[in-house]
Amino acid sequence: MGNLTKTVFIFGDKKAEGNAEMKNLLGSKGANLAEMNLLGIPVPPGFTITTEMCKIYLEEGHDKLISIIKNEVTASIKFIEERTGTRFSDAENPCFVSVRSGSRASMPGMMDTILNLGINENIVEGLIKKTNNARFVWDSYRRFIQMYGSVVMNVRAEAGDFADPFEEILEKEKKQKCYQSDNDFNAEDLKNISKSFKQLVKKSTGKDFPNDPWEQLWGAVTAVFESWMNERAVYYRELNNLPQEWGTAVNVQAMVFGNMGQNSATGVAFTRDASTGEKTFNGEFLINAQGEDVVAGTRTPRQITTEGSRRWASLSGIGEDIRCRDFPSLEEMMPEIYQELAGCAQMLELNFKDMQDIEFTVQEGKLWILQTRNGKRTGAGMVKMAVDMLHENLLDEKTALLRVDPKRLDELLHPIFDQDEIIKACCIAQGLPASPGASSGRIVFFTEDAQVWSSKGENVILVRMETSPEDLKGMVAAQGILTARGGMTSHAAVVARGMGKCCIAGAESLKIDYKQRTIQTENLTLKEGDWISLDGSTGKIYKGKLKTSEGQLSVDFEKLMNLADQHARLKVRSNADTPMDVMTALRFGAKGIGLCRTEHMFFDDDKIMAMREMILADNEAGRRKALAKLLPMQRKDFEDIFRLMNGLPVNIRLLDPPLHEFVPHDEKIQKELADELGIPHEIIKKKIESLYEFNPMMGHRGCRLGTTYPEISEMQTAAILEAALHIKYEGIESLPEIMIPLTGTVEEMQIQKNIINQTAEKIFEQYDDRIPYLLGTMIEVPRAALIADKIAEHAEFFSFGTNDLTQMTYGYSRDDSGKFLPMYLEKSILKHDPFQVLDQQGVGQLITMAVQKGKAGRPNLKIGICGEHGGEPSSVEFCHNEGLNYVSCSPYRVPIARLAAAHAAINEENNRSITSRQNASKAICFENYHF
Ligand code: ADP
Ligand code: MG
Ligand code: MG
């Protein structure tokens, strides 16, 4: 353990041993609790047991952990006792604590927390005398048994039963007494419920519920450490790429009670709108409740601000007078508390320079802040907040750019429901617009069904009363999430926004029946499997499947993208084969075409016939005749593209796929073809059979076609350069780059180069005019990477075709990898799918080598990448670090690549300055304040 012997860090009364910088050791909750104390914000006193202790517990077990932390924990409990003037385990004047999880990155609801610890029947009696509030005391006790019972003692629903057994007891009691809500329980009811809870624990675990507060404390601390490894937490980390070895800290903190009556409350507040990014303070609260009630979504909370409350009421169709009477805001009910809360929120945002998600509790008219963290947000929210905070001078440009996760830009480009469709559609209910997006799918009610259905390719909407952390997998599988209960800060809403998934919460008018698997509205019943559509931006739920259309790009999005381009060194191009693709690519800001695959053009009706004629011809003369028909058609395609690109570079790859892909294998179509070409069917059939290859991907394709049939390369070169000349006469410039595919030897490169250059000269002579063009090759056969210096002598540019390069480096056929890749990923034999995330260790070495050798062969060699990886952020960063000139990806990923390119440049700069700082001062040490 060395000098890391300090295992516990205390905080309270505006002092703290930790601070916000210490997230690795204290977890983000613990570090921020300390920081809030240093800022002078009212926080109940407590202490944090370090993440190091989580590792000790998981590796060396319970006894070892307790032996290490026992003395410090005991002393720290004394610290809490002194600050609160109470005594742990004392019946007259008891001290209660919460035991809370909290790792480096926030994992909402994934691990466990226990409230009201330190209570037993003896203490209940004492506390009733002290507070004169029997209802509150019994409510606290029953809550403690419920939480401790399920978290520490593992009381679970019996197989086949869906409901939480504790909640079932509550529901039963409520029904029996004809109560409307939990708030109607009186002290006597709650006492009986506590008794039933204890019986449930005994029946389900065989153990008595522990009465000794110290036993409760050690049980809770170890249970929180244990919860780091629970299934949903492990899965959440996998999903979000968080290291499994971090471990969680444990925070033990004096309880404050939001359930002491009508002047007590609990809630969650956001400094900005997590869904849209707008700068409006917002949040939700419940009167006379404890913290977990709001996030669990079992009770629908009220709005903090009056403005928010009015907006909520109008969505729910509630008039202003009823709203004022039944659903007043915190601002209206407790104006002073509201002001104090808004002040704390503002201070926290300024301090952390990011949107804050804040938990608070009001105990008998006094405000306490219990947590602050950088709030989860949607992709659109991310962009808006980053741009706004830049304008507010809260962030500098680089930090603002780093605030937006490139992968999340995807969400902004997603389609929305077609306006015409919405007008015709049947809106069956209205909920809260918890996370934007437009999604349609079939109704499922359970996580398992969502997974099974979606694995069969079905689009599903997960419909729940409320979601719990156990539903995470179902939420991932679903297209959208709909809940009948809970608010904008419920688990479902927070997690959906974090995933960028469409979500509508709290659609109260829906009656969900898990047993029948139906949703009832006033005049309609929907069954499992029926289609519904969710509009997460308005909260409207529609029957059936609605068509979607292209969304609008926001002004903030454009601003952010332009800023990204200013910081990036890599240029971003797009792969585009048709004018349609080209337009999309330009809309998303592509600075060129990095790959135009000519073969897709040949599949058009008019071209495929001439193409087939060429393939089926017996000799060169026959091929030339057919190619002459193709030439004008292909020239026109290039003219259209050059015109749109208006002087930006366009990289055109010569014919690449094996010829058999262009001919029909169906007997009937073969016969039609025979009729059209006037050749007997038998001959056509034979010729097609002769094209058969055992392994077409490694067969007669790429430049092997152009080498055996030079007339194909000739025709394509002519089409490209004639097109460029033609549009030159329209006054439009062009910058063609002619790319040879699948080069593996210098000789292939030489032969193709000669064909292209000679054809070019012939055309230039004909037109008595010239066009500048570049001639280069793909690097996608490993051998080409190995001899890149020799190839570069003949090539003016390289473009890494990382799809083929990955395929051939691993020896995985991309078309057959479905048989083993999923299992490899599941068992972590491979960390990522190498066809999505560039394998830097292996394939990356070939790239590094080819770049070095290529530049040795030709110092001004232009280098890019055009595989799928060109739009994947970690691969883009790799390309930046290797000094490539550009990446090229599919049109919809262009914005992702542009931002990733800026991140790569900024990260490089930041790392450089960190290294120089580290060299200046060798060691960084923690400073501990002592009270
Ligand atoms: P999570 O990480 O899942 O949000 P928390 O540790 O924040 O879990 O706790 C769950 C709920 O209990 C929160 O609403 C929190 O505000 C509340 N809570 C935690 N500690 C206390 C405390 N000492 N007094 C009152 N409420 C608390
Ligand atoms: Mg919390
Ligand atoms: Mg290829």
Automatic annotation (TrEMBL):
Catalytic activity: pyruvate + phosphate + ATP = phosphoenolpyruvate + AMP + diphosphate + H(+)
Record-annotated PEP-utilising enzyme mobile domain positions: 458-539
Residues that hold Mg(2+) according to the record: 780, 804
Residues at which substrate binds: 597, 653, 780, 801-804
Protein name as catalogued: Pyruvate, phosphate dikinase
SUPFAM superfamilies for this protein: Glutathione synthetase ATP-binding domain-like, Phosphoenolpyruvate/pyruvate domain, Phosphohistidine domain
Coiled coil segments of this chain: none
Known EC number: 2.7.9.1
Domain PEP-utilising enzyme C-terminal: residue ranges: 557-904
Function, in words: Catalyzes the reversible phosphorylation of pyruvate and phosphate.
Single GO molecular function: ATP binding
Pfam families linked to this entry: PEP-utilizers, PEP-utilizers_C, PPDK_N
Cofactor(s) the protein requires to work: Mg(2+)
